[in-house]
Amino acid sequence: DYGELKHLHRWYIQTDEDRKSLRCRINTLLVQIWPDLKPQKDFYYGLTGRALQESYGCNPQRIVEAGRKRFETRIRKTAPRAWAKTLRQLFDAAEASARLPRSSGIVTAMVDQLADLNAQYQDRHACREGIRGRMEEVYRRMKQQEPRLPDPEPGVISAFALARFFAETGPLDDFSSCSQLLKFAGLNIRERKSGTYAGSN
After folding, report:
1. Which phi and psi angles does 193 have, rounded to 5°?
2. For residue 26, which phi and psi values (nearest 5 degrees)?
3. Contact 164, 135 (CB under 8 A)
4. Alpha carbon distance 172, 189 (integer Å)
5. 112-133: buried (b, 16+ CB within 10 Å) or exposed (e) per residue?
6. Model's pTM, two decimal places?
7. 46, 86, 95, 153 — which has fewest CB within 10 A?
């Protein structure tokens, strides 16, 4: 079980790194497609951002062609709680970006690439969540076999956090003391002192 948990954790970390890398590539490409868009952090991954992707592929030219009223109506079908101010800002930004001297072919190619990256991101996100569920299941199985393992506590520590902890440490019986465990984790903190000099921890 500990070996399985360790392998799953490594897989989780790699998948999460892939997901973060894809987010960076998506954000970079989105700036190229829609340079006048000034969204809040993580806007693209929220309900309104997903509505933009599904309805218009985040293509400012298509948004302008639809017209302001039709654009707002269509976005609200997927994101009914989208603020009127936000939708106005999005349309204004689309109008400004659509005026840039770029061929529709270039924009279409970038929008197609964005859709591909978005599909990869959704796949990595779903994979990461699946691995997380498997790690929690392994920890529950370990807990049944080894009752001394700590229980998750809402608001304090989750089953997933415990699974990650034991994926790194392995069985705690492998450590001869608490001090040895702290050293393994890199938490053996010391205060620096020399003569009259007293440093910080």
Report:
1. -140, 145
2. -65, -45
3. yes
4. 20
5. eebeebbebbeebbebbeebbe
6. 0.81
7. 153
End-to-end CA distance of the chain: 37
For residue 197, the cross-strand partners are 194
Q: What is the mean pLDDT of the chain?
A: 92
CA-CA distances (angstroms) from residue 190 to 14, 33, 183, 194? 33, 52, 11, 12
Collapsed DSSP state (helix, strand, coil) of residue 196: coil
* Residues making up the chain, counted from first to last: 201
Residue 4 corresponds to which tokens in the numbers above? 């399985």
> In Å, what is the CA distance from 66 to each residue of 49, 73, 141, 162, 188?
17, 10, 54, 50, 62
93 with 34: CB under 8 angstroms?
yes
Read off the pLDDT band of 197 (50, 70, 90): confident
Neighbours of 61 (CB within 10 A): 20
